[in-house]
Amino acid sequence: MIPLLRVTRSRWLFLLACVLSAGLCPSTVYADGGAPQLAYVAGSAQGISVIDIAQRRLIATFPVAGNPHAVLLSQDGHALYVTQPAIDRVVVLAAQTGKALCSASLPGQPSLLALSLDTTVLYAAGQGDTSVRVLDPTTCAIQHIFETHEPVYGLAVTASTASNATPTTPNQIWVVGRTGLTIFDATGQLLGSVAIPGGPQYISIPGGLTAYVTTHQGTVVAVDLNTQQIMRTLLNGGQFGPMDYDATTGEVYVPDLRHNQMDVLTPVTASTAILPREPVRVLQLSGSPQAIAITNDGQFGFAALANGQVLMLDIPARRIVASLAVGGTPQFIITGLYPPTNTPVATPQQTQSSLLQPDGVLFLLALVLVAALVLAACWFLWRRSRKRGGHIS
What we know:
Shape: globular
Strand order of the largest sheet: 3-2-1-28
Radius of gyration: 27 Å
Distance between the termini: 6 Å
Structural class: alpha+beta
Low-confidence stretches: 1-34, 342-361
Number of helices: 3
Oligomer: single chain
C-alpha cells in the first residue's frame, strides 16, 4: 500500500497551493447595507428612491406609505430612518432592501429627524405637536419626551458649547419653534432660547460654532452657538428650504424655492473679522428646489425639485451632470458615504487605471508566475506519488 505520510503530504501541498493561488487574487468587498455611495430621496412616487452616485442612475425604489418626509442613515449605513407624517409614524428600514425593522407611532405628524453625534439616539418631531420624542434607533422605543410648548419646524444636534465640555459631554438639541429656538441638553434640561424675528423654519449646524436658520419671512440668519445671539442676516427675499453643507469647506447650501436656485454661503463665526458678501455664489436650477444634499467629500450634490426631478451636481465644477426622474414631490435627500470608508479614496479615473500602470502590470505578472510555479510543483509531487503507488502491491 502507499505510505500514508507521502499521500497526506502531497494532498496538503496541493491544498496549500490552491489556497495561496486564491489569496493572491484580489476580491471585491461590498459594504454591509448597500448605503455607501448611494443617495436616498424621500417623497418620490414610490416613497423612497435610491440613486447610485457613481453610476449616476436610479437603481431601486422602496414602497413607503404615509408621505415620507425626512430620511436619515445610521452610521454604518445599515439602517434608514424615515418619517411618515400622514400616518403619524417613524419607521426604520433596512437600507439595502427597504424591509421594515421597527416602527413607532408618534402624534403630531412627525416630519423631522435628528441623530445624536454618536448615532445612538434618534430625535423626532413635527409641526402638529409641541414635543420632541427621543427614540432608541435600534428598537424604536420611546425613551424621553422634551416639551417645547410650540410646534416644531426644525431640529439639529451639536456638541456642547460649555467651556468645560469634553468629547463625552452630552450633545445639545436645538429645536426650531414658531417664534424662536429652544436649546436642550441630552436629558431634556432647558439650556436657553433665541428669539428669531420673522419666524424660524429650518436649521443647519455645520461645524459646532454657528447655526444657520431660515425664516418664514424669507431670510437666513446666523446664530452664534456660544452666546446664543443672532450675528447677522445673511440672505433676504427668498423662500428657503432645508439646507445642507460641504463638510470639507464648511460652505452652506441653501435652496431658494422662489428663484429656482441654490445659494452658497461662506461659513461665518463670531470671530470672523471681515464678514463676506453673501451668497458667495449662486447655482441656477431648472425647477424649484425642495431639498439639497452634499456628499461627505464635497464632490457631488443633489437637488430635489418640485417637478419630481433630482439634479446631480458636480460641486467643484459647479455644473449639473445628471437629471434623474423619481416622480412625486421629493422633499428630502440623504447621501451615504462617498467614497465608501472601506475603500481607498480615489477618483474614478484612478480606480480604472491603477492596475494598468507599469508597476501594477509587473506585480500582477509576478503573482501569476508564483501561483503557476506552486501549482506545477504540487501537481508534479501528486503525480509522482500516484505513479509510485501503482507499483506497490
